[in-house]
């Protein structure tokens, strides 16, 4: 970078850059002229598929996108990366983000999602960057958990229902505390579910759109799902990362809900996705006996498998994004029905020669 002053430098550090949101955010910030640094984990296989399209060869002059090996469980590594990159904005998106998996790996989830957040905030303090570096925390509608109030807003009480949500609750409050204690410009984005063609394959929307495409193409026989009655407020990830950036452009840090204000049962999303793949579904039975049949052939294509039920479930999420609309000027654009259509269209292309998902 040339003679940029501290005030005009735009340097972002994104943890979780290889994930769905990280990929969209990196793309957005590069388009805005930022120098973007991302932390990726070492893996035995390639894990940069979502960001390959924006990769810049570091050997070429003027490259503005750089990746660093790191992990949220390694404090010294995080401190060193923050010191080396001197970011003006940190977006903490890295997390063990799968709710069901968190019941199986609760300690690891707490280490990466809760303590990982603390480690980054401490890096800011240790390096005396409290006034030069802003901080975004990927908080979640899972904090609301057991329904206390609908729609859920910034003032709705939290009641986490999984090890993931409990870890994110710690992260939420440590961000608030470091803001109040040390004056760090740190904000929580309480984001409701957001999806896209880049969504991880074991989250329910993508599992459904991939299966609808694979079944249509004759590459899969059946889709097994868990709780079809859960309701989620699903928006488009590309629009939500813009909200993250907006939060860090405000004069004062704060916490904001990003949501669409519309909720949809999992069962309806299944119906839409199969419809978009050209398969009309008829439902028969109820509860664990419920099955989805192809209306044209009578073949059973969808079956409930209790293995996918969670020990404690979040039944209903519907967010009120009024504060983000009024203070940030943010609102969602893509309705969930259109989102399902986009995801199925992409999966019909991708599934033509992709391997079939094993589990989810
Ligand atoms: P993804 O699961 O797609 O991405 C998670 C990212 O975190 C990946 O890059 C992953 O790396 C990385 N990661 C996981 N564990 C570690 C670790 N120990 N050290 C370093 N990196 C790690 O999540 P999303 O992009 O969907 O979500 C981004 C964030 O927003 C997460 O914190 C999630 O909990 C939160 N959130 C997501 C919502 C959503 O609907 N998508 C809603 C609300 C909050 P790798 O690629 O190697 O696995
Ligand atoms: P969620 O997303 O738990 O809301 O967390 P997910 O897509 O995993 O589940 C949504 C709902 O669908 C039900 N469900 C199934 N879920 C999965 N994964 N697989 C299935 O087969 C299945 N069948 C039914 C679930 O029980 C649930 O009710 C996501 C993650 O991105 C979090 O990181 C983020 O914080 C929240 O969204 C907001």
UniProtKB/TrEMBL annotation:
Keywords: Lyase, NADP. Gene3D superfamilies: NAD(P)-binding Rossmann-like Domain (3.40.50.720), UDP-galactose 4-epimerase, domain 1 (3.90.25.10). The keyword NADP applies. One of its GO terms (molecular function) is GDP-mannose 4,6-dehydratase activity. Its cofactor is NADP(+). The keyword NADP applies. Catalyzes the conversion of GDP-D-mannose to GDP-4-dehydro-6-deoxy-D-mannose. This is GDP-mannose 4,6-dehydratase. It comes from Sphingomonas canadensis.
């Amino acid at each position: 970078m040339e003679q940029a002053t501290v005030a005009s430098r735009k340097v972002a550090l994104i943890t979780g850059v290889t994930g769905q949101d990280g990929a969209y955010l990196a793309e957005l910030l590069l388009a805005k002229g930022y120098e973007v640094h991302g932390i990726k984990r070492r893996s035995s296989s390639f894990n940069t598929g979502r960001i390959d399209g924006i990769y810049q060869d570091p050997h070429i002059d003027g490259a503005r996108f750089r990746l660093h090996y790191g992990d949220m469980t390694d404090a010294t590594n995080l401190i060193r990366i923050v010191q080396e990159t001197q970011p003006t904005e940190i977006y903490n998106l890295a997390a063990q983000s799968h709710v069901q998996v968190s019941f199986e790996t609760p300690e690891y989830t707490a280490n990466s999602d809760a303590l990982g957040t603390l480690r980054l905030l401490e890096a800011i303090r240790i390096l005396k960057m409290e006034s030069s570096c802003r901080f975004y925390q990927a908080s979640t509608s899972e904090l609301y958990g057991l329904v206390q109030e609908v729609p859920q807003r910034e003032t709705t009480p939290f009641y986490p229902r999984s090890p993931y949500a409990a870890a994110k609750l710690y992260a939420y409050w440590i961000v608030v505390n470091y803001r109040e204690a040390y004056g760090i410009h740190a904000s929580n984005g309480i984001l409701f579910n957001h999806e896209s063609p880049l969504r991880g394959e074991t989250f329910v929307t993508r599992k459904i759109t991939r299966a609808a495409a694979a079944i249509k193409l004759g590459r899969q026989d059946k889709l097994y799902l868990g709780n079809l009655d859960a309701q989620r407020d699903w928006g488009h990830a590309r629009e939500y990362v813009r909200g993250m950036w907006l939060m860090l452009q405000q004069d004062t840090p704060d916490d904001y809900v990003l949501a669409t204000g519309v909720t949809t049962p999992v069962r309806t999303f299944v119906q839409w996705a199969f419809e978009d793949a050209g398969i009309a579904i008829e439902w028969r039975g109820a509860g664990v006996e419920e099955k989805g049949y192809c209306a044209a052939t009578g073949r059973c294509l969808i079956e409930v498998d209790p293995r996918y039920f969670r020990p404690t479930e979040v039944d209903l999420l519907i967010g009120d994004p009024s504060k983000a609309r009024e203070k940030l000027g943010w609102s969602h654009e893509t309705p969930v029905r259109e989102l399902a259509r986009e995801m199925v269209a992409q999966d019909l292309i991708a599934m033509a020669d992709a391997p079939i998902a094993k589990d989810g």
